[in-house]
Amino acid sequence: MRVLAAMSGGVDSAVAAARLVAQGHDVTGVHLALSKNPASYRTGARGCCSLEDSHDARRVADKLDIPFYVWDFAEEFHEAVVEDFVAEYRAGRTPNPCLRCNEKIKFAAVLDRGIALGFDAVATGHYADLRRHDDGSVTLHRAADGAKDQSYVLGMLDQTQLSHCLFPLFDVEKPVVRAEARALGFGVAKKPDSHDICFIADGDTQGFLQRYIDDAPGDIVDADGTVLGRHRGTHRYTVGQRKGLDLRVPSPSGDPRYVLSIEPVSHTVVVGPRDDLAVRRLTGIRPTWTGSPVEGAFRGRAQYRAHGAAQEATIEARDGGLLVSLDEPASGVAPGQTVVVYAGDKVLGSAVIASAA
């Protein structure tokens, strides 16, 4: 099989590529240049797609003796991921750019180009389990390493995309991956995992957004509309935030207040007690299904954060959207996040959260 191995410069994608070579596939490595002005070096575990990362990926490819290319997707990434990220914050929502990147870049633009060039599949270092069935269908499941499972960020892929994907790390835990990298002599064996948002390497989301969104001051109010303070822009806040509110009026109970909702049209941030963050019903829009679309109501599990636990729920597909009724209340759910729904360990699909109550 001709396989295009996406190589980020990290240990996971390096070992994924090595496993494919060992299995006898015809592997070509590709590193995605996603930044218009890539930094020379990463800062520890922050950021990715730096020049250092591309060099690390090339060194692994050389060790594996496979062809290696750098594909420039900076323009597509900026338009589909960065601009979308800014637009979501401007609209008072909290996006997940990793899901957007998987949806629009790694498993759309890259896959399309790979197929056009004659490759049979694209492989990545994601921790997720793809199972192929006799009828030709493919199902997506959680990985063996529950602590590293990344099925959530793949929940927006459809059957056509999944049928052209390979996830070689589906059956191993992270320590084994690092041990394999050491045994192969890869310099990335001890490289820290990247985290946070890849295009905000310093971790300062507010500082990044300031470059794109002008300040629009407004009121910080409680649920009754009482003005408690002022803010310099709703993009500085997310649902569930406690720090940085700078309120001059203490709560009657003396307990801290949290951001409950954001209303960008009126430039209002609503705050209240922690208990008011609890929600049981999520509505999702623009659902995508990993297999055939699900109809009606069913019992399953719902996950709304990449590193959060899935919760038991009744899920109903109706009116072109999803209604998720959680058995137990959830806290800090924000519009713009993605809810991924499961049947056991199998991913059924996902939707963008429009509201939570």
TrEMBL record:
Species: Tessaracoccus bendigoensis DSM 12906
CDD domains in the record: MnmA_TRMU-like (cd01998)
Gene Ontology biological process terms in this record: tRNA wobble position uridine thiolation
Catalytic activity: S-sulfanyl-L-cysteinyl-[protein] + uridine(34) in tRNA + AH2 + ATP = 2-thiouridine(34) in tRNA + L-cysteinyl-[protein] + A + AMP + diphosphate + H(+)
Top-level taxon of origin: Bacteria
Family stated for the protein in its record: Belongs to the MnmA/TRMU family.
Its job: Catalyzes the 2-thiolation of uridine at the wobble position (U34) of tRNA, leading to the formation of s(2)U34.
A Pfam family assignment: tRNA_Me_trans_C
Disulfide bridge partners, by residue number: C101-C198
Main location: cytoplasm
UniProt: ATP binding residues: A6, M7, S8, G9, G10, V11, D12, S13, L32, G125
Iron is among the record's keywords: no
Record-listed E.C. numbers: 2.8.1.13
Keyword tRNA-binding tagged: yes
Active site: C101 (nucleophile), C198 (cysteine persulfide intermediate)
Site (Interaction with tRNA): H126, Q337
Gene Ontology CC: cytoplasm
Protein name: tRNA-specific 2-thiouridylase MnmA
